[in-house]
Amino acid sequence: MLFRSALRSVVPRALPRVQAPAARTFASALPRLSAQEPVIQGPGGKAGEVPTDLEQATGLERFELLHKLKGEEAFSLEPLEVPRLGTVADPIMVFSLDTERIVGCTGFPVDSHDTILFPVGKDKPVRCPECGCAYQTDFQGVEHDHGHH
Fold it and tell me: Rounded CA gap, 22 and 40, in Å?
């Protein structure tokens, strides 16, 4: 009898206390949707089969393949028109979706020297070391894009 009374006094303390549910939920704000672009990813290959390029391509490779299927060019491959000599005050603006782009200058007038490649940024104009023509990117992308992260 003494053992049962001792056991009864210990049992309530040994059981874990269950907290009562909160009166309101912890997440009281409305859910927000992410504004990220969808991932350009194919369905992948089926089991036991070798996947095609279109099925397994991702990212820029898939972007190019989808444009080729439409009969379009994914990227502009046309040479940049340089109707004048760009100056530091009035540089030749180069369209770019990134903050930096590599430009190939052939001189002014066109083809006056061999092609010289150099990086051009959006912050300040960069001059060609051969002819002095100034270039700057016309940045049209997302300002704080984190690349592939």
Answer: 42
Give the pLDDT of residue 54: 84
Structure tokens of 73?
């060019």
Residue 140's alpha-carbon distances to 33, 37, 95, 96, 148, in angstroms, are 24, 16, 7, 6, 18
Q: Does 133 belong to an annotated binding site?
A: no
pTM of the full structure: 0.55
CATH of residue 132: 2.60.11.10
- Tell me, yes or no, whether 47 lies in a domain: yes
The sign of the dihedral angle between the CA atoms of 86, 90, 91, 92 is negative
pLDDT (tens digit, 9 = 90+) per residue, 16-46? 666 666 665 555 555 565 666 655 677 777 8
